[in-house]
């Protein structure tokens, strides 16, 4: 496995094996204030998870606050990129200051939906130490099939998995424990149990409101929502998973070969209900 990982990432994560030597952090005591940073790749029920937390009366939710900085830094042309850059704060220092500052609107919980690939490879990630970091993973074949319907700008980095590994290693190294890692398929199969387990791990009470929400846009949506959120706007809760149909191109099959060992390594230490 270590050789596979080194080949897939150019040796960047040769020490990833240390992640699996840690224990998962146990149930946390209830807390008055918590900033949850949920680190995900794209097309991974990340917006449904944001809606789930946003539906709590004690929670403020933020949608991909690093997106504008990512678009400017990379020059990638995602749908609606110009609008995102124009309307969202793009100065990284200012964004980090906000994310690590007081919880908005006097709420007890701040749910920050983050895309791992929005983190630049050479950036300092020590600012995440002040957050309760959690991770959302999904079978990369499903991710690539979904992502290919929206954009042609796809490579291993687009899956978020290399950056996810980097952040997990950082968090594990600082705390001595594996952070909560959830597989989206298992959330869809048993949302009550998996969300309950997550709430236990981050020190908050489970709320039944997390299981359903009203269809349509939400105030927490980013300005890019109309380009990406069609499916979740039609939803009112977590639906049972079904395999995505379609075939990957030869190029995307190569990306899948690179991504799968990283996903499997994270999957080994995911939380179970």
CATH class: Alpha Beta
CATH topology: Rossmann fold
The CATH architecture name reads: 3-Layer(aba) Sandwich
Radius of gyration: 18 Å
Q: N-to-C terminal Cα separation, in Å?
A: 26 Å
Report the β-strand fraction as a percent range.
Answer: 5-15%
Q: Which features would summarize this protein structure in a list?
A:
273 residues; alpha/beta; two-stranded parallel ribbon
Short description:
The chain is an alpha/beta fold and 273 residues long.
Commentary on this structure:
By secondary structure, the protein is an alpha/beta fold. The chain has one domain: Rossmann fold, CATH 3.40.50. The chain contains 12 helices and 7 strands. It has a 5-stranded parallel sheet with strand order 3-4-2-5-7, with helices on both faces. The longest helix has 19 residues. The two termini are 26 Å apart. 39% of the residues are buried. The N terminus is likely disordered.
List the helices and strands and how they pair.
Blueprint: H1 2-9, E1 23-24, E2 34-40, H2 46-54, E3 59-63, H3 67-74, H4 81-87, H5 92-99, E4 109-115, E5 132-137, H6 140-147, H7 161-175, E6 177-178, E7 181-183, H8 184-189, H9 191-202, H10 225-228, H11 230-233, H12 250-268
Helix pairs in contact: 1-12, 3-4
């Amino acid at each position: 496995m270590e050789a596979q990982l080194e080949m897939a990432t150019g040796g960047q994560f040769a020490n990833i094996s240390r992640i699996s030597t840690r224990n998962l952090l146990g149930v946390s005591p209830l807390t008055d204030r918590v900033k949850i940073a949920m680190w995900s790749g794209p097309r991974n029920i990340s917006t449904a998870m944001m809606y789930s937390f946003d539906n709590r009366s004690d929670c403020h939710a933020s949608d991909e606050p690093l997106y504008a900085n990512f678009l400017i830094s990379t020059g990638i042309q995602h749908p609606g990129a110009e609008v995102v850059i124009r309307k969202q704060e793009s100065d990284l220092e200012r964004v980090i200051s906000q994310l690590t500052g007081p919880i908005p609107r006097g709420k007890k919980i701040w749910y920050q939906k983050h895309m791992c690939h929005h983190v630049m490879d050479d950036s300092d990630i020590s600012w995440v130490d002040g957050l309760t970091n959690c991770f959302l993973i999904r079978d990369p074949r499903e991710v690539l099939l979904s992502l290919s319907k929206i954009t042609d700008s796809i490579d291993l980095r687009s899956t978020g998995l290399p950056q996810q590994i980097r952040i997990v290693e950082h968090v594990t190294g600082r705390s001595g424990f594996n952070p909560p890692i959830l597989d989206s398929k298992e959330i869809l199969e048993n949302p009550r149990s998996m969300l309950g387990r997550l709430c236990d791990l981050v020190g908050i009470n489970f709320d039944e409101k997390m299981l359903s929400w009203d269809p349509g846009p939400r105030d927490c949506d980013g300005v890019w929502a109309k380009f990406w959120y069609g499916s979740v706007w039609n939803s009112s809760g977590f639906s049972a998973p079904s395999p995505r149909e379609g075939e990957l191109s030869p190029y995307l099959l190569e990306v899948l070969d690179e991504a799968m060992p990283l996903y499997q390594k994270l999957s080994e230490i995911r939380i179970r209900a």
